[in-house]
Amino acid sequence: MNVKKYDSAFTHQIEMIEMEMIEEVFDSPLFSFRSPYVNKIIAYFVSRRFLTQSQIRDLTGFSVGEISQDLNELIEQGLIHVVDKNEKGERIYEMESLKSVLYNRVTRLFTTIINHESQFINIKSEMKNDITLQKLNGYDDIYQIIEYYLSVIPMYKIFLPKFKSFIDSLYL
After folding, report:
1. Could you give the CA distance from residue 19 to residue 48 in angstroms, rounded to a whole number?
2. Apex CA 65: angle with CA 61 and CA 67, to 5°?
3. d(CA 112, CA 115)
4. pLDDT in tens, the chain (172 residues)
5. What is the location of CATH 1.10.10.10 in the chain?
6. CA dist 127 to 19, 113, 159, Å?
7. Helix residue ranges, H only, the chain
8. Cα–Cα dist 127/118, whole Å
């Protein structure tokens, strides 16, 4: 494979746009379920597509250990994969599409909330039956949040398979 096709020379102006994108987009609530480290790495994959671990280190300043752990997580989730090695023998990673990141984000968010339904029910029951908790500052707010999640979970259960089917129909 031709290693040169993975090289990405960025001008200063493009790097400034890239930084703005990373700060604005990947700090949004849509990406709040991931660590800021992973978000930043994803952002660089979105803008550059192909990266090595040393390039990620140079771009982010993260430790090699942190990067390695985050890359393994992204590989495990199917968001990136190894496509080649460069002349130094470093793995070249690729993220094929932003679609996969957004798809993963939405399905993970809804699945996480759905999977915690029984815990929400238990928390609501404990809160309802514990008079000392009811006297604490913020009790009503927390109770309302729990009730909110319990009210939307049935809708999420309906939405999630439809969302997956819709996305699959667009890209298959």
Report:
1. 12
2. 55
3. 5
4. 444 555 556 677 777 787 777 777 666 665 666 677 888 888 888 888 899 999 999 998 999 999 999 999 899 888 899 999 999 999 999 987 777 777 877 888 899 999 999 999 999 999 999 999 999 999 999 999 999 999 999 999 999 999 888 887 876 5
5. 3-96
6. 44, 19, 29
7. 12-25, 36-48, 53-60, 64-76, 98-115, 117-129, 131-134, 139-171
8. 14
Backbone angles phi, psi at 131, to 5 degrees: -65, -35
Alpha-carbon dihedral 62, 66, 69, 75, rounded to 10 degrees:
-10
Cβ atoms of residues 73 and 123 within 8 Å: no
From the number of C-beta atoms within 10 Å of its C-beta (0-12, 13-18, 19+), residue 40 rates as buried
Domain 3-96 = CATH 1.10.10.10: yes
